[in-house]
Amino acid sequence: MKKIAVLTSGGDAPGMNACIRAVVRTAIFKDLEIFGISYGYDGMIKGSIKRMHSHSVSNIIQRGGTILKSARSEEFRTKEGRLKAYQQLKQLEIEGLVVIGGDGTFTGAKIFFEEFGIPVIGCPGTIDNDIYGTDFTIGFDTAVNTALEAIDKIRDTAAAHDRIFFVEVMGRDSGYIAVECGIGGGAEFVMVPETRTDIKKVVKSLKNLRKSKSSSIIVVAEGDDEGSADQIMNTVKSKIQDEFKEFKVTTLGHIQRGGNPTARDRVLASRCGMAAVEGLMAGESNCMAGVMSGNVVYTPFDDCISKTKAIHQDHLKLIEILSI
Ligand SMILES: Nc1ncnc2c1ncn2[C@@H]1O[C@H](COP(=O)(O)OP(=O)(O)OP(=O)(O)O)[C@@H](O)[C@H]1O
Ligand SMILES: O=P(O)(O)OC[C@H]1O[C@](O)(CO)[C@@H](O)[C@@H]1O
């Protein structure tokens, strides 16, 4: 193998730049030619592919976003689109690919590998932490810390005005961010897509808590089965508005995807990036390089996509016990 390429795809995540840096510098260290593809699979289809050098990734380890840009590509979902992408790689004699993204990115990579046989290794880059085969995904720790900082501030005003705050965090299909910042932020409740939200139970508990607390923080993952934080707030409010003075909603949104990556994300990203290149050179393919229990592991894309990394039930219990 002489030439490989790297791209970022799906939602950006803090630490993607550190991962690109690790891929580029490991490739150069191993005497490979390394190419950067802009705008994910769209850029691969359009041929937005440039040679990268060590200096191309200088001064980016601390930066959020991705210097390669990211995109969600509809065309890559079609066979014709993927064929165009393959032809672009073939023209440049690129023989291996590193894709940094989430489970959608890995689904595309798996199909691409099966159709054209180009070895592909993924690095888990998404704030959602919803990928099987790695304890944490790149960007998750930063997103949790960003959300936590906001919750700490919201708590001040919630306490000052005796309010119930519903704080919506990201997680289309996953409650990992909600659970971690719920524990760290001392939330009274956390609502996640993985478990059924019981509004009656929440109302009953809030009434009970009213005896000892005048304010509460409820963290809602955006994909909760009862709807958005706004919808949930209105349902809860209609049942207990006499008991609490005020109900407020704060949606944290995309601030969770930006900012300088934490040390944990930079280290994880660097390890996964290096492992992806080493894996390609050792003949690994159609898999993701992740870190589990401190060790680098290669997990088949099939497992990363089809197996779920369940929320720890004891984490949910922890929130319930500590909120009394
Ligand atoms: N079934 C599929 N076939 C081909 N390509 C796919 C498929 N699923 C996803 N992709 C490609 O992967 C891209 C990224 O997927 P997606 O938008 O789901 O983000 P992701 O990688 O899961 O990241 P995040 O978790 O941050 O949303 C899609 O825009 C598409 O180009
Ligand atoms: O704004 P976008 O890019 O559509 O992404 C939103 C989604 O991306 C994620 O943040 C994952 O990166 C989800 O939690 C969220 O639903």
TrEMBL record:
Q: What class of enzyme is it?
A: transferase
| Statement: the UniProt record of this protein carries the keyword rRNA-binding | no
Record-linked InterPro entries: ATP_PFK, ATP_PFK_prok-type, PFKA_ATP_prok, Phosphofructokinase_CS, Phosphofructokinase_dom, PKF_sf
> For ATP, which residues are the binding ones?
11, 72-73, 102-105
As for subcellular location, the record says: Cytoplasm
Keyword Methyltransferase among record annotations? no
Determine the domain of life of the protein's source: Bacteria
Annotated active site = 128 (proton acceptor)
Name the positions where Mg(2+) binds: 103
Residue sites binding ADP per the record: 21-25, 155, 186-188, 211, 213-215
Pfam families for this protein: PFK (PF00365)
Listed pathway(s): Carbohydrate degradation; glycolysis; D-glyceraldehyde 3-phosphate and glycerone phosphate from D-glucose: step 3/4
- Which segments constitute the Phosphofructokinase domain? 3-279
Keywords from UniProt, A to Z, are: Allosteric enzyme, ATP-binding, Cytoplasm, Glycolysis, Kinase, Magnesium, Metal-binding, Nucleotide-binding, Transferase
Give the EC number. Answer: 2.7.1.11
Q: Which residues bind substrate?
A: 126-128, 163, 170-172, 222, 248, 254-257
Under the subunit heading, UniProt states: Homotetramer.
Q: Which family does it belong to?
A: Belongs to the phosphofructokinase type A (PFKA) family. ATP-dependent PFK group I subfamily. Prokaryotic clade 'B1' sub-subfamily.
Please identify the protein, giving its name as recorded: ATP-dependent 6-phosphofructokinase
Q: Which organism is it from?
A: Aquiflexum balticum DSM 16537
The encoding gene: pfkA
